[in-house]
Write a structure and sequence with these properties.
Elements: H1 2-20, H2 24-45, E1 48-50, E2 57-59, H3 66-81, H4 84-101, H5 104-114, H6 121-132, H7 136-153, H8 158-171, H9 182-194, H10 209-235, H11 252-274, H12 295-298, H13 300-319, H14 325-337, H15 340-359, H16 361-376, H17 380-395, H18 401-418, H19 423-436, H20 447-455, H21 463-491
Keywords: Membrane, Transmembrane, Transmembrane helix
Transmembrane segments: 21-42, 86-109, 116-132, 138-155, 162-186, 206-226, 260-277, 297-318, 339-356, 376-398, 405-423, 435-454, 466-491
Pfam families: ABG_transport
Length: 504
Amino acid sequence: MTKKSRFARVLDTIEVVGNRLPHPATLFFMMAALVALLSWWASAAGLQALHPATGEIIKVRNLLDADGIRWIYTNVEHNFVEFPPLGLVLVIMIGIGVAEGSGLFTVLVRQLVLGAPKKLITASIIVAGIFSHLASEVGYVILIPLGAMIFHALGRHPMAGFAAAFAGVSAGFGSNFLIGSVDPILAGLSTSAANIIDPEMNINPMVNYFFMVASAIMVVFVGTWITEKIVEPRLGTYHGTEKPLEIEQITSKEKKGLKWAGWGTLIFMAAMAWTIIPENGLLRDPETGGILRSPFFSGIVVGLLLLFFVPGMIYGIIVGTIKSDKDVIKHMTHSMKGLGGYIVLVFFAAQFIYWFNYSNLGLVVAIDGAEFLKNIGFTGIPLIIAFVILAAFLNMFMGSASAKWAIMAPVFIPMFMLLGYHPGLTQAAFRIGDSVTNVITPMMSYFALIVTYAQKYDEKNGIGTIISLMIPYTVIFLIVWAVMITIWLLLGIPVGFDGPVHMP
């Protein structure tokens, strides 16, 4: 009891500190202002660096001199409109809006969970959590209480099902079997950061795919073991007043909708395969005939849009949630309505990123930082693991993954590129750190809602209860994931498509 109270005080401190942070948009504005001040100071101090690739002397540009102010004034709109993640997210959310609005996402999660054998129910809930990250609100809002309900209906402790679902949904950020909306966001930010060193480099949304799939398999097995061997035994038998509920089964109409949506998805995937598998495929590189740097991958966001749109459209027509073009547009519009806060955030994030790039501060810091790390011998596996831990720590205080990556990418991607590591590896390491602490940080957007869900089974359940319940997942996932990325480094396995561990 004493340990729990002490731990709760630590969590309270984290919550207070986190709540005192300004809104992410305000934070980006403040950081942009700080970049301007630092550029003035660094320029006056004559800070510079020798570019290792070109031999060019890189000097810091002053954002507060006449040229700098003119550049800021004339590029505000450009910075916003040309910010890579903005268009990517808006495009893919059109497809996700149809799939989510039609009810396809919800019924897929229910089917995946309810169709599994009882012995595999824990694993199936975690798998559903991973898949639900394609539309994170579905996972946090629907799957976590559903996981608790299923366990309760099976005579198991509901909080164990709650924990398994929560772990799966949160771990889905760094592990998945499919590409989701977060991948284009991160890839866009990584591209902007990589362009500091190599203006021609483009990071595609599938750059972490191989590592993601392997991580997803790990999360399922390790998450199941944690739930059944550590969390559930600790909880014991449920003695609360909440009565088990009947789990709503998939209706015949929903089954029909899933069937036809599945056939539609297969036909669509076959059509896409036809454009790239044959040597004369339409979406292969027209000059080289290659695949990795082909129109297929450069336009993968359109493919992802259609991957969600096609089955969502078919399902909606079959079950009746889409009766006309007006319903389709309504679902698209609804998904866009939820992006208002993101668009405002992007406006300020874009200014920060482009100001940072224009000033050359990131380039100078990256070159000098890389040289320093080389001189002290801090490279390789210790460096990558230290970066994972740093990302995990920052996640405790700042909930938005894209906001954190927008801050970290311009510094660490160029630095690691100069040390010989591909941006895909750096991004994968960030995703590990940002996944493992999602379940224990009160700064996570849905944490308050999750506490409310837990109080359904015991009104005394609070933040400390949730954190103590989820800490085993954080610790063990971090250890196993660190081992995984170490193996990737030692063997030189690509982390994804066009995502080698080391710079070419």
